[in-house]
Specification:
The structure is a homotetramer.
Chain A: E1 7-10, E2 13-16, H1 24-32, E3 40-47, E4 52-59, H2 62-68, E5 73-80, H3 86-103, E6 109-114, H4 125-131, H5 137-141, E7 154-158, H6 163-166, H7 170-181, E8 185-194, E9 203-207, H8 226-229, E10 232-243, H9 244-259, H10 263-269, H11 273-284, E11 291-295, H12 298-317
Helix pairs in contact in A: 3-12, 4-12, 9-10, 9-11
Amino acid sequence: MENQKEETEKNGHFYQNSCHTDLAVEMKEEVEQKQELTGVEVSTKKHAYHGITETRIRIVDERGEAALGKPVGNYVTLEVEKLYRDSVQKRIARIICDVIAQLSQGAQNILVAGLGNRSVTPDAIGPKVMEHLQITRHLFECGYVKSDALNMKVVSAIAPGVMAQTGMETVEILRGIIEKTHPQAVIVVDALAARSSNRLNRTIQLCDTGISPGAGVGNNRQKMNEETLGVKVVAIGVPTVIAVPTIISDAMQQLLLLLGADHAGKLVEELSYEEQYQLAEELVKPYFTDMFVTPKNIDEEILMMSQCIAQGINAYINI
Amino acid sequence: MENQKEETEKNGHFYQNSCHTDLAVEMKEEVEQKQELTGVEVSTKKHAYHGITETRIRIVDERGEAALGKPVGNYVTLEVEKLYRDSVQKRIARIICDVIAQLSQGAQNILVAGLGNRSVTPDAIGPKVMEHLQITRHLFECGYVKSDALNMKVVSAIAPGVMAQTGMETVEILRGIIEKTHPQAVIVVDALAARSSNRLNRTIQLCDTGISPGAGVGNNRQKMNEETLGVKVVAIGVPTVIAVPTIISDAMQQLLLLLGADHAGKLVEELSYEEQYQLAEELVKPYFTDMFVTPKNIDEEILMMSQCIAQGINAYINI
Amino acid sequence: MENQKEETEKNGHFYQNSCHTDLAVEMKEEVEQKQELTGVEVSTKKHAYHGITETRIRIVDERGEAALGKPVGNYVTLEVEKLYRDSVQKRIARIICDVIAQLSQGAQNILVAGLGNRSVTPDAIGPKVMEHLQITRHLFECGYVKSDALNMKVVSAIAPGVMAQTGMETVEILRGIIEKTHPQAVIVVDALAARSSNRLNRTIQLCDTGISPGAGVGNNRQKMNEETLGVKVVAIGVPTVIAVPTIISDAMQQLLLLLGADHAGKLVEELSYEEQYQLAEELVKPYFTDMFVTPKNIDEEILMMSQCIAQGINAYINI
Amino acid sequence: MENQKEETEKNGHFYQNSCHTDLAVEMKEEVEQKQELTGVEVSTKKHAYHGITETRIRIVDERGEAALGKPVGNYVTLEVEKLYRDSVQKRIARIICDVIAQLSQGAQNILVAGLGNRSVTPDAIGPKVMEHLQITRHLFECGYVKSDALNMKVVSAIAPGVMAQTGMETVEILRGIIEKTHPQAVIVVDALAARSSNRLNRTIQLCDTGISPGAGVGNNRQKMNEETLGVKVVAIGVPTVIAVPTIISDAMQQLLLLLGADHAGKLVEELSYEEQYQLAEELVKPYFTDMFVTPKNIDEEILMMSQCIAQGINAYINI
């Protein structure tokens, strides 16, 4: 899972992602409530028939970076009302295919990295995607397939596991593999943390700026992006959990609205969102920092989402 | 997982388990803060060397039932500081063995039911226990083992899955199997909901009053006890999750302490615990009722706990 | 997995399935080489575009029973060249749906039993099918769905595990559940043993005469059919393994052909198929009776087949 | 799984492992029947109480290499009668610990590579071992543990999957990871092919010459040894399958004994073992080359074996 307190170092300072979400689209919503958004281009498209909303956010300069707490680059978010219909899954797979083509600039040789812990259901989406992929690299390498004979891309894949299982930073593992097998691009698939529960398992984010995988504490987690991996990175993420302080901070806000404009409440009401979040963190410390919130039917949703993403990647392999 | 809002019907009225925990020991702590405990016998024993606390709660009459929101019967809770040492696991297994012997009144023919959803990590403890059990019934039935030749009990087991997977009430499935295979007692193993995070995956509760498995909404979930199953029931539960309203209600309480004795706060401060919980539920509705909080390393802890419980049951089989 | 030495008791005597296959279509081929087939009706249909062969065998009387070693009833076999194309899977699912409708006589309330051991890959097809099923019974029972409002059947499911895991005969478990939940028909899904390797994971057999699950020794394995379960039974089987004596007996036959018409070889050449099989069994005893032969990529094939069968059952649920 | 037709290139020529086993101890037995063994030192030790036989084979020069078809180095084989007793598992774990210490020359920083396909039961032993390992490297790297403060080794681990899942040679993946994380030694754990069924899941082989993982075809499978990985390699293997031609060739031999000294049989009887094996291969081609033979209770045996090996590695980590 992504670390929910993502920091991006830039010009020697950290700017904080104050929304505690891994979703650019949630950041945007949060920020728009308070200020005008500059340095960011946003376009939205509704696929009305299938109930899919596609939001493309482009962070174009440092002002956008500072506003959204994420580096310059492209962020495509797909939100779906109901994933259960076959035709909806097909449509999403098609869009994923197109976005991969765009963000990877048509890479012909890709490594898919399914991040996360396969033994913890909401963190298993990366390894699960790998189970449904069409792997081709060994067919080319062994000479079973000629690269010019077929309209098929070279695909390899790995589900390296998490640091508690491997003892290694995922970025070390991937960098080592990339140097030996020379893909043109890496597609990393990972579980994310969202801010609002109604985005869980209903949203797919694709971006070309990489990700920072994390297990909560996360301060020394290493980023996976073009700079650290040495090749283009397309990150595909699905929010499957919410951080505990996030829901507490939300509940607090509602509680204070309820209490009304009295003096005592004022104290808290005047806090900025970030200060409220820190307060929420204080309240739940020390027990909840390594915990997360996830729905009870997470197994069904992970299965559905992973099949859908694998379909999208497989479609890209065969165009 | 157990339903966190357990209700027990008795004499035509419902008395509510106001603590939103499946653990008798947490109920007891909660109640003791407010009133004297009557109708309940409590004894505590420390296994100092192994860091295990064993609390035996006996609810002897209706006053005890009303106070703790649980039916008359025996509740044994084992709390452990660190489960990781081999010698601690052995000691716990030994205690589990003894408690099963006591609560099942020495049943010689048992069915173990591993409840829960094996595909959702914190709910998989029941099915996981089944993987490590020594199954013997078919050896007796096929004549490979003579009942008098060996000091071994007759053991069968089933992991029926949850209602979303089977479409059936677990109690229907178990009742059907019991009528065909005639065990003297059923040991049900299930994941529970706790109130405090430091009890998660560190506590084992054994009782002879059965359980009410639940998937959140749970109002028509059927109890599994001697009355509904027709044979003695020993329930073994491990708290692996916390309900979302529980942690919010806790955070709220702390927030109000922080806000101090001002007028606005007063409104909420004066609410009873139960009213606070209902307020917390309101605040998180409708999104969080089917969600739970669980630690990130839940896979390791479930593995450890399930092996330990299986060892305890296996020890009972061979005494 | 089915027991490969299937015996059917009839009128006080056992007639032996001399072909050591669970597939009616392989029995038919075997028998046709030696004698005219009486008491059996066969029709074959080619779905040329999708590369599917559909063979319908109807055993109409005792002569057919004796010839094919299987009870009176209907056996539909689907053989597919390549399962990997999406359109082929859809076509098969459609046929499965139609055959279930026919063999279950349009049952509106069904229990699906996914037999086999989920921890042994070639035996996991039953439990795997269950993962992809649409379960509805609890929706009707809880009142979420009105039976007349929707064109949807009542479906429940169970993957009981094998006798080494449960200590119980699967037929005991199913009978108990059926008596409590009252389905009109049971669909049992199980792995089968085939005779020829090119039918492995390429064939689906549906029949209305039930099955005899088995773990090799199998002499006291209980049949699952309308008589023992008390409701209609539709058995869906996929051959995923071959018995060790089968492949040895085949190799022997070829070896003897190779040795030619000399005196020594004659001895063996003159043996009937059944005698050859017994000889093969002798040769591999005592070590290989509890072993089976299976392909190395069995995981991929089981995944594909189980999804396809689940699609077929789901289609039936919604017609 | 290891490729059953292991070839070792040496001085420009291939010498064939004519026994079609991955076990040095089976090679030795085979060869001893025909010729005196030179260039090989053998010592055997019985742990009578625990029913464990420990055979140490040292191939000291090219004569030994040619005789046993394996490179110069040390091969320790543990054979156990019954693995089920706790005390036997402990004893084996202890021996494994000692042998690792010897073969790795006391490496303080190790990478454990659990080879094989976790989705195919008999091939899952490598990944299963990884589930029970104590991983420590990240604790040192993050500064939680000081290297001098604790008597604990630096351990990392990876279960890379097989080529059909990754599209990459396992040796490429491991080499990349080793170059980034700098272990002093690699412990590779893999499933092997045995020759005789009574060694399946009852034998553990440890050697310092690496292994050649394979998926049947195997001719371009790359070896994993000190030369290709750049660090010391300790290979731990458990035979979990038998190749199909192996059992057929055995059955053939017995059939011919049975047929007696007649002319026809002579033809085959006069074939060398290797020629017989090739004949067996011909007979089963083309269908059985990608198949294997494995016992029906393989899940239980893999679980037991993997726990036992993990215990052994964990013991080494803590000495």
